[in-house]
Amino acid sequence: MSHVSLSVCSTYEANRVRDAVGECLGCLPAARTLLRPGARVIVKPNLINARPPDTAICTHPAVVRAVAEWACAAGCQVTIADEPGYALLARAEPLFARAGISQACEDLPVRYELLRMGGYVVASVPNPLRLAEVRVSAALRDADVVINLPKCKTHGQTLLTGAIKNLFGGVAPRERIQIHGLGGFEGLSEAIVDAFACQRPQLTVMDAIVAMEGNGPTRGRPRPLGLVAASGDAVALDAVMEHLAGFEPGEVRVTAAAGRQGLGECNLTRVQVDGYDIRRAHVPLERPPGLIRHGMPRWVGRVVSRHLWVRPAFDAARCVGCGACAAICPGGAIDMNGTARVNYDRCIECFCCQEVCPADAIDSRESLLARVVVGSSRRVTGRGSADPRR
Ligand code: SF4
Ligand code: SF4
Description:
The chain is α/β, with parallel strands linked by helices. It folds into two domains: about 1-275, LarA, N-terminal domain (Rossmann fold); about 290-380, Alpha-Beta Plaits. It is built from 15 helices and 16 strands. It has helices at about 15-25, 30-35, 60-75, 90-100, 100-105, 140, 165, 175-180, 185-195, 235-245, 255-260, 300-305, 325-330, 350-355, 370-380; strands at about 1-10, 40-45, 75-80, 110-115, 120-125, 135, 145-150, 150-155, 160, 205-215, 220-230, 270-275, 310-315, 335, 340, 360-365. The strands form four sheets. Strands 1, 2, 3, 4, 7, 8, 9, 10, 11 and 12 form a ten-stranded mixed β-sheet that branches. The longest helix has 14 residues, at about 185-195.
């Protein structure tokens, strides 16, 4: 039986978040036994891009602060680290400052690092699905404790991004780009699980106080869920949040594949949830546009792709010509000529370009058939929840 603890928290006010995080971690025996004096701890938020807290793109600084404070109070040596990758940021300071984290933690004895500074090591994937080996962060592998801090968001390729997907940020940036070119959502999902198998966190604390719905992980809408969730089992935590967000069991392939691989528990009948009655609470998130091709056999996808597509749409007026999208594009589909231009014949609809664009110049566009077919399934069917506290 796996355990997931949930705490209601409707604001990012520091004291309330500290209480909620403390309530969640206090329920987990691993949080008390692993976080001991001298332990080298890496706190790994989701900093997909250097964005301010109100965008709901990154893990909120108040959550990062509360977790770092907990670990510092236990006498641990704490490093806050991530790697947005794609080479736009050469130093850690601007990333953590723009995300509001260095300000939130300014009085704590913590260090900040880009994961690439510690280098990458080749890890063999046990029982691989897609990748026999993967280059992962040496810092994450060498830490005594990794505390994973995902943000709860919808995601065009994986439907939801949470605890498992956040560890994909520990893969070497160039390899991440290649993995997006593997082909199809299934290939990406399985590669994410392979990467997770090589770098499993000891603890996960998810920021679901304000989640993101719709066109995530960077262009969706902030959506208050009012929750902090924690577990020693990242797979179980994702399974619980998917249920709350309105996804069917097995619908999010990353979680289902991780469960099948024995990396955690995805069957909710074998997950004990503390602090919240998930049978009575539902907070469905609007689904991402990429939903359209999920569950569709690849040969069907190929046949209908001329009429059924969701593509990146570039806004030349917003583009600042930084070239980040061209640098990351696994299909080599973007040419720079002052501003970015895309060749749709080479585009594999991975939306990596959208994730890295610092100017919000890349939106998504759906074909007419896509709007008709997928429109009803994206609609939100309910907004609230019964009183979920136990
Ligand atoms: S243009 Fe964007 S969506 Fe298309 S392949 Fe390149 S990065 Fe992916
Ligand atoms: S579309 Fe965005 S990422 Fe690409 S060059 Fe323009 S501003 Fe940079």
